[in-house]
Amino acid sequence: MNEEIKAYNDSMSATDKAICHQLAKEIDAHLKGATCKIWHRHPVWFLNDNPIVGYSKLKDSVRLLFWSGQSFEEEGLQPEGTFKAAEARYTDVKQVDAGLLKRWLDKSATIQWDYKNIVKRKGVLERLL
Q: DSSP letter at 34?
């Protein structure tokens, strides 16, 4: 596991730490070829410099965010923001369904919107792949 991400996870309460470690473990196992780093103070995984998935601590939960998640057409993911992102929130590590997460991660590798160039395109997203 990336040392910065491990430090981020370790800084959490015991409950949130367990959720974060489980998410990182599953993402690393299933999102082959991705790079990861702390980006805007949160763990994020990228494919070809395009943000794919990340998580962050909210007041009452840990939020897992897929930048292109609205295009997955999957139950369990809720729209987030004004672009194509979708999220799932966790308050206990037992809520992290490894099978469901793997399906979302598989889709995240093949269904992508070009967030890498969103500024250059003045807020317009284009579909990749």
A: -
The CATH number of the domain holding residue 103 is 3.90.1150.200
User: Residue 30: helix, strand or coil by DSSP?
Assistant: helix
Per-residue tokens: 111: 């269904």
Instruction: Fill in the amino acid letter for 63.
Output: R
Share of the chain above pLDDT 90, in %: 81
Paired tokens of 43: 């763990």
Does the pTM surpass 0.85? The reply is yes
Q: How many domains in the chain?
A: 1
Q: Which two tokens stand for residue 47?
A: 């494919």
Q: How far is CA 80 from CA 6, 87, 88, 90, in A?
A: 26, 6, 10, 15
Q: Which residues of 87-103 are buried (b: 16+ CB within 10 A; e: fewer)?
A: bbbbeebeebeeeebee
- The answer on pLDDT for 122 being more than 80 is no
Instruction: Report yes or no: 128 and 114 within 8 Å, Cβ to Cβ.
Output: yes
Closest among 105, 112, 92 to 26, alpha carbons compared: 105
Q: What is the pLDDT confidence band of residue 129, given thresholds at 50, 70 and 90?
A: low
